[in-house]
Request: fold
Amino acid sequence: MSVSSQLLQKYARLIVRTGGSVQPGQVVQLTISVELHEFAALLIEECYQAGAKKVNVDWQYDLQNRLNFLYAEQDVLSGVLPWEEEKIKQMTVDLPCRIYIASEDPDAMNGIDAEKLSAVMQSRSKVFKPYRNMIDGKHQWVIAAYPSVKWAKKCFPALDAEEAVDRLWDAILKTVYVREDTDPVEAWKAHTDFIKKKADWINAQGFSSLRYKSANGTDFTVGLIPGAKWEGAGAVNALNGVFYICNMPTEEIFTSPMAGQCEGTLVAVKPLSWNSQLIENFSITFAGGRAVSCRAEKGQALLEQMIHMDEGACMLGEVALVPKESPVNQCGFLFYETLFDENACCHCALGMGFKEVLPGGDKLTVAQAQAQGVNDSIIHVDFMIGADDLSIDGLRPDGAETPIFRNGTWA
Ligand code: ZN
Reply:
């Protein structure tokens, strides 16, 4: 591997200090692939250097998961054992800082019965969701990435394994501002300040809706929830006031729009990877806030299946603004990993929205947030609509218009 140990050290430190913002006396829950045990050790040491009380590791292995789904019965996989429930219950006591390292093979679950996958997920989530709701907003968490060979080969199929991993490393480090000659912690401060400034600006505008237009056929208007905030860059742990960064990289500011209030067509500018399969060259048309038709050159049936997953799957849960100069976009390839792909350009997401964007939202139940217009669904699927010529205007209740984006970037 050609990434220097000095860079790896910087990256580990960035994830722990800036991303998770691990505080003295905190428990850390690290979730990482067994293949990355050496990087795991770097992270664990950084956590203790930052004063962590204890670091617990959840070791993951793509292939184990795949084999379970291939051979074990659905109801066996759907069950939650008592110790598994005790483990997540303990998290409501410890409120650990959670660090998740994404490195999965995008094709890991290729060929696995999609219905089995979603049935198992649904059934296990039912047990875990109440505990997740209890820790929501009260702990710090961060997702960052590490290139596995299989992931890298998926991005660069023509290269040999070593070259592919090098290329992916290069891209990842670029997008998270880790370089030999600078301090990434400082770089992130400047970066998050910039994003925050943009979010503050748009929050002060009082827009009631957004209008999107592009020569590719995008012609779309979406209503916003009065008083809902645009967020970006990071979040604050409501319990201890600690600022942390959930996603590395992050380039977006986002909000949840008014569910059931959008009209027109959105044309995707990048393929969408869903359940290990690709949907390409597609558009979705909305009426009365719901997706009423869609067209895809590839993956038409898959796209339709996605939109019909449940009641809320045909409505939007997120609109996000990302300028086309984003370092992820400049990498110029599809990462097959939402953490990156959603930070390439402007996007929307079908499905679940974020109650945190509502004033006092962290204290609302899902049903209460829904009543105020935040969509709910078992899916949340981002798709990219940030064409190079995309223009977005903000409309106010009195009809006044302000340009937000011109030619794919901040106006
Ligand atoms: Zn997003």
The chain is about 35% helix and 25% strand.
